[in-house]
User: Which sequence fits this backbone?
């Protein structure tokens, strides 16, 4: 793998290794993405940057550096409500009981969030999501 002193390993996924130049603020040149198996450069432009941050947001990595660990904490804090709502809607059959205010359903939903997205929600956040989902159902006439 071609490595520059400016680029430091930032993330590993099942298939790729990402190197990041922390001094570069342009999304087109700040990340290099290599094939994990062959070490071949796959992308060194906006797409590498976008792919790395998508993996970071959706907890699809095997290892991340300390800088990205902190960045992920900030990103998740900002987006966890919308991520959890999307997760519920994408996995509705497994978590339908979550809408019934059951403590066991809350625990199950939080366990799934931790396993699949790498975070959990506080009681108030769970109530907020539940209320929003129920209100959306009533407003849109969707059957849950």
Assistant:
């Amino acid at each position: 793998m071609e490595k520059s002193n400016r680029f430091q390993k930032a993330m590993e996924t099942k298939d790729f290794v990402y190197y990041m130049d922390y001094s570069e603020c342009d999304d087109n040149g700040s990340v290099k993405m290599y094939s994990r198996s062959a070490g071949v450069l796959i992308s060194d432009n906006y797409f590498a940057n976008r792919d790395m941050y998508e993996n970071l947001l959706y907890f699809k990595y095997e290892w991340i550096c300390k800088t990205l660990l902190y960045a992920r904490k900030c990103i998740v804090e900002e987006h966890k409500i919308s991520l959890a709502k999307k997760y519920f809607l994408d996995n509705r059959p497994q978590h339908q009981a979550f809408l019934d205010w059951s403590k066991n359903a809350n625990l199950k939903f939080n366990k799934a969030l931790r396993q699949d997205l790498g975070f959990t929600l506080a009681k108030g956040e769970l109530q907020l999501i539940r209320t929003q989902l129920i209100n959306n159902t009533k407003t849109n006439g969707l059957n849950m």
Remarks:
- The first helix runs from residue 46 to 57.
- The beta strands are 7-12, 16-21, 31-35, 41-43, 63-64.
- The CA atoms of residues 84 and 113 lie 7 Å apart.
- The two ends are 50 Å apart (CA to CA).
